[in-house]
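Notes from hallway chat w/ T.B., transcribed later so I don't forget. T.B. wanted the structure written out for a chain they're using in a teaching module, and asked if we could keep both sequence and structure tokens in one place. Agreed to drop them here.
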Amino acid sequence: MTAAPTVAAGAQAQRPGSSRPYWRDAVAAYERPDLRRSGLDLATSVVPYLALLVAMYLALEVSYLLTLALSVPAAGFLLRSYIVFHDCAHGSFLPSKRANRWVGRVTALLVYSPFEAWRHDHAVHHATAGDLDRRGVGDLPTLTVAEYEAMTPIRRLGYRLFRNPLVMFGIGPAFALVVQPRFVPRSARPRIRRSVMLTNLAIVVGVALACWLIGWREYLIVQWPAALMAAAAGVWLFYVQHQFEDVYWESTDDWSYADAALRGSSYLKLPRVLRFFTGNIGFHHVHHLSARIPNYNLRRAHDENPIFHDVPTLSLWEGLRTVRLKLWDEDRGRLVTFAEARDRSVAGLGERAPRPVSG
């Protein structure tokens, strides 16, 4: 992995006599949606996903193994559809605010997420990513070493189980897809409350209709393998984009939006086919600096602007290895494993131990 701690300092610089950060000019040209490219995105995400669902159902008459084989590309196209939903939530997919909202609401049904509620939480994530004092909304729960050491053994066990890869990328995606979006937070605004309830109603009606048409067993064995694979891939992408060794975390007083984008979001270098299915979200540093850039412009923005060239960079293998990182070490300024945190605690106890009295 490569990183450059000095990039964001330049990114915060402003033009003389102006309060506008100069990076705004660097990204502005890429923020304009292109209807042709947006239409192509829909034609290469939602359309093939729905077509593959039909093909998977028809393949049941041949072999369920064939259905499962088709579920792999279906998961890829569902993940790509999620990126369309994601861009609509940022208002970056289409020129019209209303069009973004309606396309977002429709694609929300494919990914089982209430559009308005998800958009709100994700906006909070963008506004607070890398801020130690504002963790907890739209992000992956991450404790500091000190917080972890202050916990009771039972709570430590709970955190360790939560951060276990089998839970995070196995049970976690199913929970995030099926259970979590169904509930309305008590503090939610009426608009968000309506979004959750109407989305839940639409999903119930859609699932009931699908079960009536093809049978509930067929619905489960056709729909859910692809949905769960896509959810697991999505959770991993979200994880690796903000959970790498030298990631940026600061307290609110020292936190900077540009630093959080350019040092706290990874550039995940993926093979071309994976860039396609993930909608270029590996250029996450570009996306976090300007969420108004549609996914099909992220790579060009990265390639054409030096500000994006010296940022935390992960290969696919390095991204997979980040799952071993569990806690933020404020003293070292990096994420560490449970073993590294334990070694530090043991070393600290040794340093504080009184020296034996001679004689």
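Follow-up for T.B.: The two ends are 52 Å apart (CA to CA). Might be a good example for the class.
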